Automatic annotation (TrEMBL):
Belongs to the class-II pyridoxal-phosphate-dependent aminotransferase family. BioF subfamily. This is 8-amino-7-oxononanoate synthase. Its EC number is 2.3.1.47. Keywords: Biotin biosynthesis, Pyridoxal phosphate, Transferase. One of its GO terms (molecular function) is 8-amino-7-oxononanoate synthase activity. It catalyses: 6-carboxyhexanoyl-[ACP] + L-alanine + H(+) = (8S)-8-amino-7-oxononanoate + holo-[ACP] + CO2. Pathway: Cofactor biosynthesis; biotin biosynthesis. Homodimer. Residues 35-377 form the Aminotransferase class I/classII large domain.
Amino acid sequence: MPTKNILAKLKAEDNYRTLSTLTHQGKFVYKDKKKLLNLASNDYLNLAKNEGLKQAFFESLRAEDFYLSSSSSRSLSGNFSIYEEFESSLAKHFKNKEILHFNSGYHLNFSCIAALGTLKNTLFIADKFIHASIIDGLRGAKFLRFRHNDLTHLESLLEAHHKNYEHIIVMSEALFSMDGDFAPLMELVRLKKAYKNILLYVDEAHSVGCFDTSGLGLVKSLGLEGEIDFLVFTFGKAIASVGACMITSKDFKAFFINKARGFIYSTALPPLNVAWSHFVFSNLANFQAQREHLYDLSNYFRQNLQKKGCEMLGQSYIVSLLCGSNEKVGEISSILLKNGIFAPAIKTPSVPKNAARIRFSLHAGLEIEDLEKVLDIL
């Protein structure tokens, strides 16, 4: 199908994407010179806007880390000392685990899963709502899907297939990015122990930073870090940085260094960015007040949406207002925009057909008064 026909079809389905030029100022963005409250950012702890934190980082920055490019992959000349310092520091919080840094969550998931897919006699079973980066990594591998957070369906698949494979890798997110609900992590660990040949792969993209008094994620807060074989942290959300890391065993770290193509063939991130990630992680325990404020905001917003009879999803700070069709969600997004709220419509393929929504991404820089305005508009 010619490109113009594909684009015309997307426009007809109200599913055509464009880019908006935005200027950022605190919790607001400016679009076409209009000041808008930003409810589309994943800066959950409001650290990207924390000027004091940034100033403290620059004052502590070493000259050897002030490089704006690594100019090479890590396997060649790009393995600056800050990479291994960061990985070693983070690994201290995870017994018998090692850390491997990647350029982004997409690079990590795509290339690590593709590498695992080369292992003989291995089956992947992934939650139906798993992130696109994981699905892309699974292409070409043997995989099945289980209904979202449906443990009965998952166990039926394990029962049917566990004897036929050396390993089955079960894949989930800790906090799902669109529905805003939690994976049943305790039950996933129970199934792992029951079937013996199960490995667990959990992506904490939207939960790292925001759980446990250390800020080291939902898995850590539940004391399950020893049971998760592949734990993924990404840094572009609550960590207010760029990059990602795989937390896994020594053997699998070595395997990914040798087989994860996104690691092998990418120029490493600049040392400056890695130093910033290291600095933020070193200070995560100091942001408990931000985490508690975020929980309070989330509870207030969800409770008041329910009182208004809104159809919504979300168990934490990711709250989705279900609108149904692409046309309907576009109308509601436009009304919010006219009233000073930036909350773009989320449409297929990011969510299932007829499940279009406004995804409110709450963060610690908001106040109750901000959310009251949104509730009034709705």
